Amino acid sequence: MLHTLHRSPWLTDFAALLRLLSEGDELLLLQDGVTAAVDGNRYLESLRNAPIKVYALNEDLIARGLTGQISNDIILIDYTDFRQTYG
Description:
Low-confidence stretches: none
CATH class: Alpha Beta
Number of strands: 4
Order of helices and strands: EHEHEHEH
CATH topology: Hypothetical Protein Ychn, Chain: A
Distance between the termini: 14 Å
Largest sheet: 4 strands, parallel
Helix content: 25-40%
Strand content: 15-25%
Number of domains: 1
Shape: globular
Radius of gyration: 12 Å
CATH superfamily: DsrEFH-like
Mean pLDDT: 94
């Protein structure tokens, strides 16, 4: 199942989101949600430990100036990839 996070993890009930995730699920970080992918933040370790794939929209990373700060554990996709996969 695809889940999305479009708000900053600091403004979200992140623990509740993690409880909803099941093995094999996918999480798409978009808009301000991409901040969860920044290497070294407290939310990233929880995402790494979850049995899911985590994606971040590259356009939203670029818009926030975060492209060089993202963990290698996060799969970067663009809107075209997203649309082709889930459209």
